[in-house]
Design brief:
The chain has 251 residues and is mostly helical. It has one domain. The protein contains nine helices and no strands. The protein has helices spanning 2-7, 10-16, 19-62, 75-104, 112-119, 123-167, 173-198, 202-222, 238-250. Helix 3 packs parallel to helix 6 (123-167). The longest helix is centred in the middle third of the chain and has 45 residues, at 123-167. The protein is elongated. The termini are far apart.
Length: 251
């Protein structure tokens, strides 16, 4: 209000001279800080919302995986399903965030250009939360399928041994044991090969951990106070991390 009064008073303008620019800067800074607080509150609510809905998507999709159907499943189908659900959720939440922001910033004192710049700060932390949810989903998906296949293999193993035993019930104990052991080892080897093919390479695990750290840091730093420790931490560069790790190994 002070700035608005000054700019409408030409005598004051002549007297203030260069100091008027500083006054304008302080005024804009004040408006920007107020807009940032509004955006921050909206962002925090959006992050909570997308986190809760994302967890619901994870639970629902993973519930479709059972020991009975795991051997026929295509893992990419579930990833695509989750990403599509998250995109729909993201669009809905961003639309609500935009409406909420516009509703809370209708006052004429907010400069349009600053209002627009601050509005762009809302989405990045939400996208980072999506990244965390995707990483969590991929990890849970692999574990769910792994556990389902282990359970399936156990049932197959028991079934194969029982079938071989029933087929050779007239053999003596030693002969029957030899055949059962052979079937057992064949089934065990088949399952072991399947598990090995699904295992992640160390560099893939390393990359996933770094991405998770960077996404988590971006979210917490964006919503932290200026004195928060998250504003003192730095993101990790994958290539730089690998280079430093190699240097440590050579020591």
């Amino acid at each position: 209000q002070l700035y608005q009064k000054i700019v409408s008073n030409w005598d004051a303008i002549d007297n203030l001279g260069p100091n008027l620019l500083a006054c304008k800067t302080l005024y804009e800074l004040s408006m920007k800080n107020e807009l940032r607080e509004i955006a921050r509150g909206i962002t925090e609510n959006c992050i909570k919302g997308i986190h809760n809905q994302g967890r619901q998507h994870i639970t629902k999709i993973l519930s479709e995986i059972t020991p009975n159907n795991c051997s026929q499943l295509d893992i990419t189908h579930f990833s695509t399903q989750f990403y599509a659900a998250m995109q729909t959720t993201h669009r809905k939440i961003m639309e609500e965030a935009s409406n909420d922001y516009n509703s809370k910033t209708q006052r004429s004192c907010f400069p349009p250009e600053i209002k627009e710049k601050v509005a762009k700060l809302i989405e990045p932390p939400i996208l980072n939360m999506q990244g965390l949810l995707r990483a969590e989903f991929e990890e849970c998906l692999h574990k769910r399928i792994h556990d389902a296949r282990v359970s399936n293999a156990q049932h197959r193993l028991i079934g194969a041994v029982q079938e071989e035993f029933d087929r050779n019930i007239n053999l003596n104990t030693e002969q029957s044991q030899v055949r059962i052991d052979k079937v057992y080892q064949e089934e065990l080897e088949r399952f072991t090969q399947t598990i090995r093919s699904e295992s992640e390479a160390p560099d893939q695990i390393e990359l996933r951990v770094i991405k998770f750290y960077n996404s988590d840091l971006s979210i917490k730093a964006a919503n932290a106070t200026t004195q928060s420790v998250y504003n003192l931490l730095h993101t990790l560069d994958v290539n730089q991390f690998q280079k430093r790790s190699q240097e440590l190994e050579e020591i």
